[in-house]
Amino acid sequence: MTDQTSLPIDFVRQQFPSLAGDWTFFDNAGGSQTLKQVVERISEYLLTSDVQLGASYAVSQLAGDRVAKAAQAMATLINAKSASEVVMGSSTTLLLRILSLCLSQTWNPGDEVIVTNCDHEANIGAWVDLEKQGIKIKVWRINPDTLKLHLEDLEPLLCDRTRLVAFTHTSNVLGTINPVKDITEFVHRHGAMVCIDGVGYAPHRLVDVQDLDVDFYVFSFYKVYGSHYALLYGKQEHLLAMPGINHYFIGQSDIPYKFQPGNVNFELSYGMLGLCDYLSELAEVSSGEQMAPDLRSQMVQAFELMSTHEDVIGDRLLKYLTSKSNVRIIGQPQANRHSRVPTISFVVDGMNSGTIPLQIDKHNIGIRFGDFYAKRLIEDLGLDKQGGVVRVSMVHYNTIEEVDRLIEALETVL
């Protein structure tokens, strides 16, 4: 049995075959590496049950059971009450677009939606486009000094016509973890719903939609060690109340299917059971006889280890960057697992951000620059003229040794 307080990093890295190659991956907020368990589940589906669902013959029944098992597993991952609250689809961007199209049909011209200026555009543009049908859009801006969302700035925007507040759980640029539970409670007291983009949070922390009491929550599996696929959670009463986007003969009560035209991708859905396999195995390797008895509790154990390790590697890079007088971190400059993830963005005085990754590439280290589809944030902070930010986005399979290699490479540039 390993030390129960430390991540068994050798075991972890063995589960990601790509990590055995020559590259160090620090662009994980753009897309994480894929678990071998996910690939194995996808292969298993395609090679042994690749048929249409709903027929009477045995292979079709097996395929249906596998897809249903995947939906239930994803409900467990986010702690939804029911698998019927889990809508899977091709991307976060598309799922949010489907949600905006369906939900807005229950609103009237003059109703209002509040978006932020610090989200990925997926959770802004889908709502802003509703202006064409008479929905009023207001913007909740981050404080330019603290780079945080403050409730005192949200309160004046709320009114009796506010129907929804859309905001991010964790900024894909700032790395800041927003207090979703507090914000949601505040919004609910004003009679509105919330829609949370969890793409930047879900790879790092275990989501609990019931504890957060959110109305809608969405994230991408390809950033949580899976394939290019995504999940939208909605409270059952909301999903039942709004019209769907599927064929006319798909019933109003047929959730989540009424939001999945063309059905789910069967093999990619089933593949996400591989993430559950991994989290359970990680809990077992780390905890031994103290392994939790059920899958959800095993997930809690695994993510606890992951977040503790991420705090260590994030701290190493942040301390280096803050030691450089010509570097400005865009976001919280200290590691703190409760208030930030190791998605670390910075700019360098007198340097265009685009010139820096090119010099790191030759060390076989992948980092990135730009606005990362948080274009409104980058523009409002005046960073677009500098090529946006340089972003180093780490996850739990990254090591201290990799961070030190990056620091050594950066030392020749900064």
TrEMBL record:
What are the residue boundaries of the Aminotransferase class V domain, all occurrences included? 25-406
Q: Name one Pfam family in it.
A: Aminotran_5
Protein's UniProt name: Cysteine desulfurase-like protein
